[in-house]
Please model this.
Amino acid sequence: MSETGTAPSRPLHKPRAKGVLGYSEPAAVALLFGVAALLPHIPAGGLNGPYWHGVLTGILIHTISAMGFNLLVGWAGQLGLAHAGFFALGAYGTTLLYEDGVPYLVAMVILGMVCAVVGIVIAFPAARLKGFFLAIATLAFGELLVKLIELGPEMWDWLDTGASGGRSVRTVFSVGESNGPLTLYFTALIILLLTYLVMLVLTRGRMGRTLKAIRDIDVATGPIGIPSTRYKLVAFGISGFIAAIAGGLYAQDIRFLSPASFKDNMLVFMLVILVLGGVGRIWGPLLGAMFYILIREQLASFQILRLIIIGIALMIAILALPYGFASLPRRIQDSRFGKQLRNMPLARLFTL
Amino acid sequence: MNAAPALELRDLHVAFGGNRVLEGVDLSFGSGFNGLIGPNGAGKTTIFNVISGYVAPATGEVRLAGEDLANRSQSARVAAGIGRTFQAPRLVLDATVMENTLLGLQQSYRWGHLAELLRLPWARAEERKARQSCMAMLARFGLADFAHTEADSLPLGSQKLVEVARALVAEPQVVLLDEPAAGLGADDVTVLLRGLRGIAAESDLCIVIIEHDLQLVTSLCPYIAVLDFGRIIAEGGPEEVTHDPAVIEAYLGHGFAARLEAESLGVAMADSDPGRRAD
Model:
């Protein structure tokens, strides 16, 4: 329609190149998961030892959890802070069901569905709240879930969450101490791939644009024809489901459950991963989890000082990349260096 | 096709606290262009908000093709055939023009999100078809080249055109345009009018326009209603309305008709500001 002479009066940005640095997304994703599958076998730097297996597994689990959180916060724009509560419910629930004889993966899915339903139920009142009010209400609900786990055994005999909620976990995924939790690593990797694919389809399609509309133009959604309440319920449900699945994996990872590890410090941890990686970006959770967990582990020997260093590192990261690490490729892409990079022969191999 | 008016408002009363915004508005809009004018704060946008269900009237009813909309939710009204735009464009800025336009088709999808998630062929065919209708609608407003551009890189005028395309893509019976030409350059206004006239010529669409550019309204709309302090003070053809003493007093200012004629003859008048309330 350029012949109509209606070109906007100022120059436009070119449509953004798809994928990462011009690399087509399927190629980049296949590469990423290929590397992730090889990583725990590499002898260099002790990557094939139990310590690194634990760290890498932790990164995967928190990435899955943060992906679900991201759908609610980043796409739907709902600051629902019950995520750590659902994560805890998933961890304890899956452990208890497994001990009652339910296969572990089945138990994870059951807890996922339970948390999806609970998420939808709390979303009914929560959908009427906005911003800080929503945050406070859901924060309280998440803490309530953890409190119930802690105090539940005193009230109900059947709820065997241990004294004050502290209990050990019967392991499923370990293949012997010398090998470390490799089956857990690969289970988490497959679940991450599935979560990623679900997120990809949902966020790039009708669901994604509808959720973004609820986030950005909430009051206008009704007159446009978007039943925003229904979509908020769906977002709470899906994020609850994913939180519980990640919680089930987490129980196997830490092997001892204690309510203290699911309280507000867990929620802050989740928020840091989300913000650091990039809110509303599909790869944000992975980048945030990698950065945060790696610096936390690397600085373990610094004792008290490490908290200060982490704090400063987080501040610098947020100042340098306010939209998170996931905005880095686009930053580079838009820079002069990025344009040179795209013209390099190797880059074309991956470009569609 | 003037047998039944597309949109009827009967005795609408709206009050925000003690502030009575609409006091007994009766209007009926038929197919084609209808103008709704009046000074700032007269209640024009409130009428739109009542029609689209954002504001519930204290009394009165809204009828679409004879059917009362009182119990319909906002999105059900869109499904019933009401589209609208906003004074300031409400677009998702980090989504593309295409995605923003697709939002207007939300009520016309038959397959749910599970089908979307499983990438079932019929759900994908539906999405493809939706994209085609959006592309056709964008082309009418000269935006086809920008379909895959992010909305925030478009100038305001084009953003407003995207909103108009979004409001029209679901082929509503009634579309409410809230100051569509405000902030648009001359080129964009030409595109807007050409697009709207094209659709009006092909269908029975009822277009209601709130606009302060009176030359535009009088040249476009065979029917104009004038609102002041929540009441209709005049309605009828452009000629009739612009010569009405009550309208001149409340809104146009004296000498407006002469200025309008001078302008339509191509004589530019320095201080024609019809939006100003005459004191």
In short: Residues 276 and 315 of chain A are 10 Å apart (CA to CA). Strands of chain A lie at 167-168, 256-257. Confidence is low (pLDDT under 50) at residues 1-15 of chain A.
